[in-house]
C-alpha cells in the first residue's frame, strides 16, 4: 500500500488540532489493514494489543451475553477510533468488531497510546468525547429495550442508522452498508420472524424498501411516527 497522505487525518476529531508534521509522525507509526465484510478485526475477550482508526467502511460492535446470545451494541462509521481498550484501562477487548462491509483501517500498538495522549493536543479529549457519545447511544438503547414495544424499537434502530450512515438515493435514504433482518433482530432484542413481519408490512405501506441486504427508508416521517418520537 502506498504511503498515506496527511490529509487523511487532518479533519478527524482526534487529530484536527495537529500540524501536518505531527500527523506525518502518526501515519509513519501506523500499519494499514484491510478487512473483508463479515470478518473481525478482533474478538471479544482477545488480549488488547492494538488500537485502530477506521478510514473507510462500517463496523458492527457485537457483544456476547453470558448465556451466549449475540447483541449488536452499536455501529462505528469511518473516521473514528475503535478498539481503544488501552484508553479505557482494559487488558482485553470488551466486544467483537466485525466489518459490516469492506473496511480499511490503521492500527498502532497499545504501547503508543500513552505517547499519543501526552504528545498530541486534543487526542485524548476528542477521543473521550466519542466514547461518551457511544455510551450515551448504548444507554438509549437499553431504555428502548426496557420501555418500548417491538415496533418502536425497530423504527428507532432504522432512524438511528440513517442518521449515522444514511445516503440520499432517488427513493429515500439508504443505510450505506449491508444490513440484514437478522442484524436488526440482534439490535432490537426481538426475533427474526418479528422483524421480517414488521419490515414486510412497512414495505407494503411504502415506508421502507429492502433488497440484497440494503435497506432504504422511503418515508422517514412515517418511521418517526412509528418510533413514538413525535414530540
Quickly describe the structure.
This protein has 231 residues and is α+β, with helices and mostly antiparallel strands. It folds into 2 domains: 7-134, Jelly Rolls (Sandwich), CATH 2.60.120.10; 148-227, Arc Repressor Mutant, subunit A, CATH 1.10.10.10. The protein has 8 helices and 12 strands.
Structure description:
This protein is an alpha+beta fold and 231 residues long. It folds into two domains: 128 residues, Jelly Rolls; 80 residues, Orthogonal Bundle (Arc Repressor Mutant, subunit A), CATH 1.10.10.10. The protein contains eight helices and twelve strands. Strand 4 and strand 5 form a beta hairpin. It is globular.
- Percentage of residues in DSSP E strands: 25-35%
Name the quaternary structure. single chain
Q: What do we call the CATH topology of the largest domain?
A: Jelly Rolls
Largest sheet: 4 strands, antiparallel
The succession of helices and strands, N to C, reads: HHEEEEEEEEHHHEEHHEEH
